[in-house]
Amino acid sequence: MADPEPSEVGEIAAVMADPAASYWLKEAITSALDRDVFDAERDALLLARLLTKRLDAIVARHFETRNT
């Protein structure tokens, strides 16, 4: 597999060095870097979709109860 591009490495390093980045995110990046890149991406995209649906449902419930 090809080595990552310098810009990719720099962006990852910047997140890892950012004190405002959560420990959860840093652990997820570290874990993902040890996995097959295609599997890691597929899982990350699925997680993002699930979290987006959860957020949308919570926001919808919040505004539904405020408008009644």
Q: Could you write a compact summary of the structure shown?
A:
With 68 residues, this protein is mainly alpha-helical.
Walkthrough of the structure:
The chain has 68 residues and is mainly α. It is 78% helix and 0% strand. It has three helices and no strands. It starts with 5 loop residues before the first helix and ends with a helix.
Please describe the topology of this protein.
Elements: H1 6-17, H2 23-33, H3 37-66
Index terms:
68 residues, mainly alpha, 3 helices, elongated
The proportion of residues in beta strands is: under 5%
Approximately how much helix is present in the residues?
Answer: over 70%
Shape: elongated
Seen as an oligomer or otherwise, the chain set is: single chain
Distinct helical segment count = 3
The end-to-end distance, rounded to whole angstroms, is: 56 Å
Report mean pLDDT, rounded to a whole number.
91
